[in-house]
Amino acid sequence: MHAMPALRDTAPPSRLGAWSERWSAWRDRLLSSPAFRRRAAAFPFTAPIARRSASQLFDLVAGFVYSQVLHACVKLDLFELLAEGAQDVRTISGRLGLPLESTERLLDAGVALRLFERRGRDRYGLGPLGAPMVGNDAIAAMVRHHAALYADLADPVAFLRERPAQTALGQYWPYADASAPEGLAAASVAAYSDLMTASQPLVADEILDAYPIGRHRALLDVGGGEGAFLISAAARVPPSTKLMLFDLPAVAERARRRCAASGLGHRIDVYAGSFLDDELPAGADIATLVRVVHDHDDAAALRILRAVRRALGTDGVLLVAEPMARTRGAERMGDAYFGIYLFAMGSGKPRTQAALTALLHEAGFDRVQALRTRMPLQTGLLVARVARTTEAAP
Known about the structure:
By secondary structure, the chain is of the alpha/beta class. It is built from 16 helices and ten strands.
């Protein structure tokens, strides 16, 4: 699938825009001047700003090392080890099977990143960012799978010049560039299905707290994975609420097993197919797309939204939940992280609320509204309703 070309504004800049460009150019010349930077670092009123800017820039340089420190701690189960209580470095070294010097380096790096704290001489305990990692399978799974992304970005310039036909991250998410995703084997969907199931608690409560799904009679979760979201929703809705899940055949089989194991096999109906090519099951008055749309380019995303529109009744509601570009306070997560992540994955892109709204309108929805969530960093939420003045989109 190829993304539809984006329209760009080619009109000449306004007088205000021209002034803004001149001001930005002047600021850029000033900040790039070594003499100005020296004076700013020495002047008492600007020195804190200069130091903060230098620190932020260095954090960009060192960010990969920081992420690898976290990755090592997760792989070594170091958070679980220190959850037993503070321990001395020699004990930790022996239990990890690492040389003493390597253990000290890792622990001191973790202290600097607030993952650990020093508890007296040569003793370490959990820090304010390490304690929430204990037993947190969702974050641990997210950290582990990033090894694929790191491999793809080993030479970022070469990667951006010519993205390989097959990337490590693309192999992790095999449906991203599969011509017939419904034919994927069970083994190929296992890793990403496990990750989605583990990480779903991060977003399920955000969605369920923001929108009263219990007012509806039938919920269809499109691309619902192994059923983690519906299992959470089942605890929030009346027993009479019909619950339906649609995903690829290999994933749907995993969903049936997980729903049965959770004691909800009788409440959740699982359907198999491809939402790009097959009709979705009818009968729902609300549908959810949880972290689905941003995995697909515009043309494919529009096909998915139109399929949902056809499946919903005339008063149907759609919830779209995913991280969104240019979310205030989470800008880096949108374009900097997901922009590159999805490029490496081989499909999709982060979209702004406005871009998603435009797609929803084109697919036959209207009255699009953004709902506030506690963690917009990971979950933006739009609610859209079937347009009353349009027939089902083709």
